[in-house]
Design a protein that fits this description.
Layout: H1 2-11, H2 26-38, H3 43-77, H4 89-92
Length: 96
């Protein structure tokens, strides 16, 4: 039964907060902590906000790319031949 429980846990994706380790210069950390205090947040909060913004930008650019590809496909699919042009531009503006 123990093996079954482990197998079921491994099926589900991880949705909790994940701790990560970063190597950052001490001076940079000090400067960013000052910025965090000014913005009433933490260093972790700033990193989290930046990563969320980056992920949202990436998702948006992917959506725009897919929409543009769909639009280009529809242009190709909807093209049709109207035949030979039998009129002149001047004929369109003939006011007689």
């Amino acid at each position: 039964m123990r093996h079954l429980a482990i197998a079921l846990i491994m099926v589900f994706p991880y949705y909790g907060c994940m701790n990560i380790t970063l190597s950052v210069d001490d001076e940079l950390v000090k400067e960013v902590r000052k910025i965090a205090v000014e913005r009433d947040t933490t260093l972790t909060g700033l990193v989290r906000a930046y990563l969320q913004e980056l992920a949202a930008e990436h998702a948006k650019s992917g959506r725009k790319r897919r929409e543009l590809e769909a639009l280009e496909r529809s242009f190709k699919e909807l093209q049709f031949n109207m035949g030979k042009r039998t009129w002149k531009r001047e004929d369109l503006y003939d006011r007689s």
